[in-house]
Amino acid sequence: MALFSRSFIRKRVISLATTASVTATSFALAQDPTSARAVQSKENPFLSENATAMKKMMTDMMIKPSGDVDRDFVAMMVPHHQGAVDMAKAELKYGHNEQLRQLAQQIVSTQQREIAVMRLALDAKSPASVASPTQPEAAPTPQQGASRSSMDMHDAMPRRSMNQGGM
Question: Cα separations (Å) of 20 from 15, 25, 36, 144?
Answer without folding.
Answer: 9, 9, 19, 61
